[in-house]
Amino acid sequence: MRRPLRLAMLLLAAALPAFAQSADRLADPAAEARAREIGRELRCLVCQNQSIEDSEADLARDLRRIVREQVTQGASHDEVVRFVHDRYGDFVLLRPPVRLATLLLWATPALALLGGLFAIWRLRRRESAPATELTEAERARLAERLASDRFGALPPKRESAAQDTGEPRA
Amino acid sequence: MTDIAKPSRRKLMLYAPLAVAGVAGVGFWAMLRGLGDGSFNPRGVPSALLGKNPPEFSLPGLDGIDLPPLSSPDLRLFSKPVIVNFWASWCMPCIVEHPQLIALQRRGVPILGISYKDREADARTFLARHGNPFARLGVDAPGRVAIDWGVYGVPESYVLDRHGVIRWRWAGPITPEVMTESIVPLLRSLESA
Predict the structure, then answer these.
(1) Which of the four CATH numbers 3.40.30.10, 2.60.40.1940, 3.30.420.40, 3.60.40.10 does domain B58-192 have?
(2) Does the beta-carbon distance from B2 to A167 stay under 8 Å?
(3) Do residue A66 and residue B2 have CB atoms under 8 angstroms apart?
(4) How far is A79 from chain B (nearest CA, A)?
(5) Which of B116, B147, B151 should be substituted to probe chain A, the one whose Cβ sees the most A Cβ atoms within 10 Å?
(6) Nearest to B150 among A89, A126, A131 (CB)
């Protein structure tokens, strides 16, 4: 019984953004498409993670209207974006400009990739390094340690036996 | 593969995560403290107009209130630093900051109000109930002048120097802490400059 109701509510919720936009949509489909393309690049500063095209906020609606007014007046894509950028600063651009201050932001993917490659290279180099034989002195020390073990016997053959003695115990 | 970890390396493996956690803890503590006294606002956005003159505008006054209207030349009228405050009667934080505006007015700081997207009757009621801190008041019913200033919510306040250049912007209510830690020192340095 409840399921159709829930489905209807879900569909209604999904359709809400369409209602939000229908109030201020340009009649000319080409101009509307252009306005939408601009709006998708502009952040809504109230919700901060949505573009002004997706947001329900009052300010986003005002900005959508301004974008459409300017598009109707024949302003270019860059002119409209500059208008909003002049007022709200870099944060309003969902695609931040490449600048000295944003260089690290843009370079992060490349740096992460390089870091990963470096880590792989190091690991592989370590793996392929030949296992070093114990020197005569180390062999003697090992034997001494094993002999002084309170069980007085060699432990069962274990690869990690050498590792356990890597750190001197107090 | 016999890779014997050197003692120094083992110590590093042990202490590096501790150091990272320590630094993160200190950062988190500083953030919480900032949130508590209002000096850190995670949603804060720097104004694009800092160091610039605000855009030209001319706003009508509020009917039934004995205050002159506000337009951009008025910002330089006082030959001293002024505060421009965007507010609305429907905005709860505006009620929170109102006593601080009144206190600033009592100190002789000219406060120029811009009523943002408000009904005139509601704005009048608000001023009658909470007091009037404003020297001039413009009504921006469509909110277009606010957009020219880069306002993204109310209340929002700007400190302008005597030449009408925007020196500081605060998005959010002026709490007593914001007042003593930011506005008062800034006004003092602007007045002596």
Answers:
(1) 3.40.30.10
(2) no
(3) no
(4) 15
(5) B147
(6) A89
Is residue B97 scored above 60 in pLDDT?
A: yes
Picking from A46, A90, A126, the nearest residue to B152 by CB comes out as A46
According to the model, what pLDDT value does residue A48 have? 80
Residue A167's pLDDT is 53
Please tell me the pTM assigned to this model: 0.71
Tally of CB atoms within 10 A around A26: 17
Nearest to B152 among A45, A166, A168 (CB): A45
Q: What is the mean pLDDT of each run of 10 residues along chain A (170 residues)?
A: 66 57 75 94 88 91 94 94 93 87 88 95 83 83 79 56 50
| Contacts with A89 from chain B: Cβ below 8 Å | 45-48, 150
Residue A86 · residue B48 · CB < 8 Å: yes
* One CATH from 3.40.50.1820, 1.10.8.640, 3.40.50.150, 1.20.1270.10 for A2-92: 1.10.8.640
| Interface ipTM | 0.78
